[in-house]
Amino acid sequence: LVRVGVIGTGGWGKNHLRVLAELNALAAFCDIDKAKVDLYRAKYRVPGYTSLEELFQEGLDAVTVCTPTTTHHEVARKALEWGLDVFVEKPLAASPREGEELVALAEGQGLLLGVGYIERFNPAVQELKRLFRERRIGDPLLLEFHRENRWVGVVTDIGVVLDTAVHDIDTALWLFEEAPQVVYARTGRVMSNHEDFAAILLGFEGERTAFLTANWVTPKRVRQLVAVCSKGVATIDFVSQRLVIDESEQTVIPRLPWQEPLKAELEAFLKLVEGRDKDTPLALGPEALRVSQIAEAALISGRTGSPIFLNLDR
Ligand SMILES: NC(=O)c1ccc[n+]([C@@H]2O[C@H](COP(=O)([O-])OP(=O)(O)OC[C@H]3O[C@@H](n4cnc5c(N)ncnc54)[C@H](O)[C@@H]3O)[C@@H](O)[C@H]2O)c1
Question: Is 66 in the pocket of ligand 1 (CB under 6 A)?
Answer without folding.
Answer: yes
